[in-house]
Amino acid sequence: MTERSKTASRVPAFSAPLDIRTLLTSAPPPLDHVLPGLLSGTVGMLAGPGGVGKTMLELQLAVALATGTSACAGLFSGLMPAAAPARVVLVTAEESAVVLQHRLHAIACALFVQRERFGITHDFAEFVTQLGSNLHLFAGASHRYALLDRNMKRTTELQDLANASEGARLVLIDPLRQFHEGDENDSAAMNLVVQTLRRLAERTGAAVVFAHHATKASTFAGQGDAAGAARGSSALTDGVRWQLNLSRMSREQAQQASLAEDARGQFLLLDVAKSNYLPPQPTQTLQRLAGGVLARVAAADGREGFQLSADKSRRAPSPRQLKLQGSRR
What we know:
This protein is an alpha/beta fold. Helices cover 31% and strands 18% of the residues. The protein has a 9-stranded mixed beta sheet. Strands 1-2 form a two-stranded antiparallel sheet.
């Protein structure tokens, strides 16, 4: 194709504005939430310090969507109706197949030993059949998964991931650092990373979520709930439409919850740090069970988790003070 023919076939930008009359005279379709606040065809982030349990949370979310069951014993309970089992793609670039096998065994054991807590009505054979059909799990210990090379050019792995994600409801990649070769402190580079994932989401119709590390400063300051807790350029948080933060409970928060110091490590805090399509949500508390499996903790009064202080004068704000950032974009 000649340069002239390329120019002739190009559709000019800003040449097709929306038809306002049509928008106002027809009912809008409902928003399609894959997870509460995370729409199909959009990009989200799961942020948290290393070793906190991000991969286990992703695996449990993947299992829940793939089998049409509740995640983490009622996570997001009441925010969205039960959904039919759906195809999920999870790429864990730093985990071996053996490690993932151990984690799947731990999840299955927790689900079927504590059926009532996890809301499991499946029999085991049905569960395994649905999971085998819908969960497409990739271990990455010996593979290169960079979607963008050091020059921030698209790689063949990007097309491979797009092919693997066709028909998926949710695509999870973990961690983001293994899926590009750019400088994560470079705003232009990270903006390109988010744009690349956005095109993947739009092409496949799936929600795409990447796991990313939180900064050490936010971890030490007890600000793991903040949208700005993610490491590297703010272009990552700015570019996603949804951000979920997983953080450890601080000593102060454990004291407020009347937890002994040796029990503090068993509990984690989960916050919707940013959402453009969801009203503010309370912090949820998760408990680590055998094998690292995470289960939602409900307070005795039915509210979410332990009742933490809401004293806004504290230097390190409680996650319960969180207001969603996305609604003010």
